[in-house]
Design brief:
The protein has about 130 residues and is mostly helical. The chain contains seven helices and no strands.
Length: about 130
Amino acid sequence: EEIVTSLLKSYLTSATGALRAKALMEAFVLPLVLEMNPVGTTTAQAKQQKPASRSLTSLIVSLARDRPMECVDAILVPSMVPPLTNATEDWEPSRFQCELISRVLRAGRDSLSSQAIAHFVEKLLPTDA
């Protein structure tokens, strides 16, 4: 996790475009969040649930503050909805994933903007309009 934090601090700057920022988050941060859910995993070690570390929580809170829309699309929504490849009817986010998202949302004005929160809710509760 420390390596991922260092990598993102080095390569995710204000000059980084939204598409590239989202790709970096999906490639390096999302797998760490998805590891917290044993349902979609196959290895015995991954089947043990574990809470998010302080460093992972801090990283995601800072990403939510600095790149809110990309964070919602690349990390928050994919960690709350079933993966397309392993879509199972009994899939649900793990307790630890929910706690992590809750911490990000509770970080208040230092985290997601109201526009990003609205975007998050829209992605979680799609409407057929």
